[in-house]
Amino acid sequence: MNQKKVYIFSILIVLMSIVFIIFYKKKEEKSKKYKKLFQSQLRNIEIEKVVYRNTNFRVSCSGRIYPNSEFHITPDIQSRGIVEKIFLYEGAKVSKGKVLMVLNQEFISNESFNPYKVRSPYSGVISDVHVELGDKVNSQTRLFSIVDIRRLKVKIDIPEKYLNRVKKGQKVIISLEDNKKSFIGKVDYYSPVPSFNKRKPSQVIVLINNSNFELNSGIFVDATIFFEKKNLLLIPMTSIIYESNSYSVFVYDRKKKKVFLREIKVGNVMYNEGKVEVLDGLTEGEFFLTRGQFMVFDEESVNVVNYNGNIE
């Protein structure tokens, strides 16, 4: 009899175990189902880790080309006369020793003089002729102005906030407004003191080689200056939320699995790279939203979807 009771009790234990296992599995499946349903109702986002980087960025400016040097030609100290012939005018290229004009000195004195030939003491381009045929001239009269355009200087306007980053010898790309060709120049001079006129940016002078005479003075150009900056915290422009004259980003808390809206302070904008420098508001190692930031709310629970589509 006792043996029969033990047998029945054992069967009951087995049956109860089977029922418990079935119940537990159903509960686990139900829990997974609800969890999956809950996750499917949460918004999916993508995140990126905050890291500091060394980066190069460029600043675009406008400028104008000027001759690097200009010379004025006058007759010798003992020469005076009347302009009899002018051989070259504005825009003409001249070499050193080239005859530019002839002065007739017989009209000035009764003595006989050979015609006085005015020669160019420099090579360059005539920028201005200051006299006409028949004019009386002396050693104080300015006859010609000649510019040396084998080297040109470009005066570019640069925003004040970049002025302290400019260095002599720094590389600058000079481009014509039609963007057909670019030239490489180097910074020759910059004012270390910002312009006090807020409407007038500070100027930087760049020297460029023009030995092939491809450029002319007076034309407007675009200039690009390259800067290097270390330990920059850069985030995509698309991650920033602009509202009421303030900038914010959504930060993801991995423990709480929630996003929190946080105000930040921004610096330089790298339009060519689509990045913005963050000066304050983010800490290295945190995570910020790169997708879904315009669909979530502050302190909202979310799903983090990696680039391969998996949920974190």
From TrEMBL:
Keywords: Membrane, Transmembrane, Transmembrane helix. InterPro entries: BSH_CzcB-like, RND_pump_MFP. Gene3D superfamilies: 2.40.30.170, 2.40.420.20. One of its GO terms (molecular function) is efflux transmembrane transporter activity. The chain crosses the membrane at residues 6-24. GO terms for cellular component: efflux pump complex. Residues 72-148 form the CzcB-like barrel-sandwich hybrid domain. Belongs to the membrane fusion protein (MFP) (TC 8.A.1) family. This is RND family efflux transporter MFP subunit. It comes from uncultured spirochete. The gene is TtgA.
